[in-house]
Structures are given as structure tokens and as C-alpha cells.
Write a structure and sequence with these properties.
This protein is α+β, with helices and mostly antiparallel strands. It has a single domain (2-38, 52-93), classed as 2-Layer Sandwich (Alpha-Beta Plaits), CATH 3.30.70. It has two helices and six strands. Strands 2-3-1-4 form a four-stranded antiparallel sheet, covered by helices on one side. The protein has a two-stranded antiparallel sheet with strand order 5-6.
Length: 108
């Protein structure tokens, strides 16, 4: 199992959600509001705050869905503007389902 973690522009969330829901067997996702900055900073003349609002998406998916989810995020979140975001794929060793106490390496 893998975690797909993406940081996207907030205005792209609706479009991305609709695209992900079209994937057969899509496992679901968590959305978190966050602020941050990358290599380039915004230019504010007063009250300098380098942070930009983003949406953090977390998806835990089986190996067979990772590539299509990754490609869907890359396409749906793309606007062609600087700061569109980033996508990461991380290994997940195992997890547990709290409701029944089940512990598994492929908990999807």
C-alpha cells in the first residue's frame, strides 16, 4: 500500500475530487487546509507573510491504483501557473482499523 500526498491550489479541489471519483475502486481521501511556501516567495510590501493557502490531500491506495491516482492528480490540479503544487508517493508498511482491531499491510 502507498500514501499519495498532494498539495494543491484550493480552487482546484472540486475539479480534482470529481476526477478522482471516476476511478473505479477509488479508496477515498482526506483533505486538510494548510499554509506553506516553496522555493519562491510571494511579494508582499507590507506585513510580509510568505505563506500561501493550499489543500493537502492524503490518499491511502493499493499498489494497482497508485499510478492512475498520481496521473489524475497531476492532470486535474494543473493550471500552468507557478505554485500548482506537489505530489508525493510514500510507502505504507501497515495500518490498523480501529473499529475492529484489524492490523494489516494492505488495509485499503
Amino acid at each position: 500500500m502507498k500514501e499519495i500526498r498532494a498539495f494543491i491550489q484550493p480552487h482546484k479541489l472540486g475539479h480534482l475530487t470529481m476526477a478522482l471519483l471516476e476511478i473505479p475502486g477509488f479508496p477515498g481521501m482526506t483533505i486538510i487546509d494548510c499554509d506553506g511556501f516553496g522555493r519562491e516567495r510571494t511579494q508582499h510590501t507590507q506585513d510580509y507573510k510568505p505563506f500561501l493557502s493550499k489543500k493537502r490531500i492524503e490518499i491511502f491506495a493499493p499498489e494497482n491504483l497508485v499510478e492512475i491516482i498520481f496521473e489524475t492528480i497531476m492532470q486535474a490540479a494543473h493550471s500552468g501557473q507557478h505554485g500548482d503544487g506537489k505530489v508525493y508517493i510514500l510507502d505504507v508498511l501497515e495500518g490498523g482499523r480501529i473499529s475492529n482491531g484489524k492490523r494489516d499491510s494492505d488495509l485499503g
